[in-house]
Amino acid sequence: MSNLAHMRRPLVLLLTIACARQVGPANSRVEVQDSGVAADAADDADAGAVFDASVSLDLPEGISIWNSSLSACAGIAPIDVGPPTTFRFEAVRPPRLGRFAGFAVDGSGHVAVTKCCSGWDPGSPSETWLFSLDGGLLAGQFYGDTVVSETAGFLFERIPMDVYQTRTLSSWSPDGGFELQLSINLLGNQQPEPYCSYAQAPDESGFAACTDVYGMTTLLRLDSALRPFEAPRPFSSGMTVRSIDARGFAIVVDSDGGTRWADLDAGILSAPVEGGLSWDARRLVGGGFDSAAGELASWATTYSPRPNWLAERAGLRLPIVRAGRAYASVAFESSVACKTRLELLALDGTICAALEATAPLDAGACTPPQLRIGANGVVYEHPTRPESCDEYTCNYIARIWPDLLR
Question: 125: closest CA among 110, 105, 142, 111?
Answer without folding.
Answer: 142
